[in-house]
């Protein structure tokens, strides 16, 4: 087991000049980055309207703001140094500062529209439609029900913090950016009590008992007679909450239960936290198979010293799938026996002008039902005009899995898609949720990189699916390197939103159904521009419980954003080589290379890795952050090192004793049906418990 020396700990303490909290991350390095869909002219017009509404908030000024919201509602405007939101949303923020009496004309106009939209959404049972009611008609009377119901749905799914953030709009002195006008009227005290009771319930479920008691005391003193349905019971709110507070909270968070590993990060949210316990000393490698992935780099010659690509597998129903971008492989998870190989493209020759120095990125896969989705082609991106540039665009490929008796499978290609615009290339494997497919693309033009997102529907069609929408995201400077870029960008699913961390200066959230830009965050780029092109692991955003976490490859920090409106919640700066691993209820786990290799457990509320502020960090003598990803269980962080598996307790980072940890190699690990699957550039290993080898698991 790796030990942390006192000298390393003191050095790390002396080094930590990073910033915490919600600070302005803007800088000159970000000025050249353009956010698609943003308009300076609309922003100036908004400033004029804001000043007029502040000086003379009459009906005419309100009408002019409403016209502006309808005409330019989907145009993004910059509201601070780093954040962009739609004009319609910011107009809603502006109008929420007026009194309910001043909003009468507005509400008479939008209430019928909001009522119709809410009725249609409830009839269709479309949960994400509730969010759209709030986004479009947030100050209307029907929006109250949309806020309550949407928060209830989030709470049922285990996203208590996200639910509380929605209910903050119904608190007169809440922390939300805008407050619903009804809660400022004395006759609507029951509405305030209803939202407060729900927040107290959510806090209790999260284990925040002290804050839940504060909500109980406020309810008891300010709204002693308020009653309704809470936690499945009818009664006075503070009495129901008091009964709950006598019991310990039991709230299982959403997590991967270990039956499948469907994409990079195990789930479309890219958060691979396992809802499983880890018992030290129980797991060891049971079988090993040699891989023949392209490229097989020779030990001698001009390619000597180049590092092999690290595969990112997916797994389900005791089958493991791997790809090198040219072939697709299927293995049996119990024995490691090869099932099938499907040829997709002819591999290019091994030559220095083809394979760049450093780490070669290995393509990712997406598994949904009986379909596999991947980007076929060399993971090397170059501007148009470079040698063989036509070979770098890639193809999106859908492969159908056909299962047979005795766990055998065959693979059959169904369709492939070219990039949506000329001279463009596909990024990484697409995101597939609910029969819809989203993919990121890019295009080099005039020394700049343009990036966007497309949606196809249905993803499981027998023929190439139809393009539903296409949205540009950003335009950023890109200095071409001779080797090109090998990192393939991935999208993240965030409660009905598609979040794209471009790793080129912008993070943007899009509506999954329409492609509407919901918000954008332009972060400060690192001073060394070459960092964005260095070969690296995929660096997508991670979504968990109402928050989006990003550690862009071209930045020096970690940023936590509110998924609803893109607000910066906190940032952690002064880091290099950051790789995000997973998020739990209390911590965001990451590894860094510089100034010292370390594992960080960043408190999700304070944004700090200091123990005094709810986090912790463990220095490492060496780090494999470019090579392997950790596993996170209910109580442990399992980090693979060259000396074996390092098992740390979540709460404080202390190691747990594991006599067999040295038998687990440095590798990518995935979990399927209780089996731990390890993948290195050369081998595929199955780590199976003794019980599973001789019978089904309990």
UniProtKB/TrEMBL annotation:
The keyword Signal applies. Gene3D superfamilies: Tetratricopeptide repeat domain, YVTN repeat-like/Quinoprotein amine dehydrogenase. Residues 467-586 form the Pyrrolo-quinoline quinone repeat domain. Residues 1-21 form the signal peptide. It holds the Pfam family PQQ_2. Residues 202-229 form a coiled coil. Keywords: Coiled coil, Signal. It comes from the Bacteria. This is PQQ-binding-like beta-propeller repeat protein. It comes from Thermogemmata fonticola.
